[in-house]
Amino acid sequence: MTASDPENSHLLWALRGGGGNYGVVTALTYPLHNVSEVVGGIITHPFADALAAIRYYRDVSMAASDELKVDHGIGSTSDGSKGVNYVLCSCGGQSDDHTVHNLQSFGEPIADTVATTTYLTRQMLFAETFPHGTLHYWKSGFLPELNDQVIETMVSCYTAAPTPRLALNLE
User: Hey, which residues does 75 pair with through a beta bridge?
Assistant: First the structure.
């Protein structure tokens, strides 16, 4: 049975969560795309630039193409201090190249590992950060809008964090 907008739309509604009280999935079919090389990596900024860096992330990511994934994180840098990261992966074309260049040109990054690489290598970007057998706690929520009040709250909360080993991430 197919569940889509034109065909069995009531089942599609249920599969999407049914208003929070219903959902049954027996099989999913995904169309796959051959992706070999991507442009990806991490651009790190000092925590002192957090407000401006997150605002810039908001503006750039809202205008990015669907082929460019830009995540944002406040967390620890390679030297263990607090920092701001842009984590990106692009499998798009020239418009993405321009956006990636804009992200690389913002402020004064303290690290930039963005390069052309294989998709598999990009997927392993955080493998050492989360080694097998370690325990991590994740909690998620959805934001209707990444406004200045949310950004200020994130930076304020992370400023008070007792360790840079905590992370606040936006995808």
Answer: 83
Which tens digits make up the pLDDT trace of 37-57?
999 999 999 999 999 999 999
User: Which region, left, alpha or beta, applies to residue 17 given φ > 0 means left and ψ of -120 to 50 means alpha?
Assistant: left
Q: What letter would DSSP give residue 5?
A: S
Which CATH architecture does the domain made up of 37-125+138-170 adopt? 3-Layer(aba) Sandwich (3.40)
Rounded CA separation 65/164 (Å): 31
Q: Closest Cα to residue 42, out of 104, 105, 127?
A: 104
| One-letter identity of residue 5 | D
Q: Phi, psi at residue 84, to the nearest 5°? A: -120, 130
Angle (CA) 156-161-164 rounded to 5° is 115
Q: Where in the chain is the domain with CATH 3.40.462.20?
A: 37-125+138-170
pTM of the model: 0.78
Strands 37-46 and 111-112: antiparallel
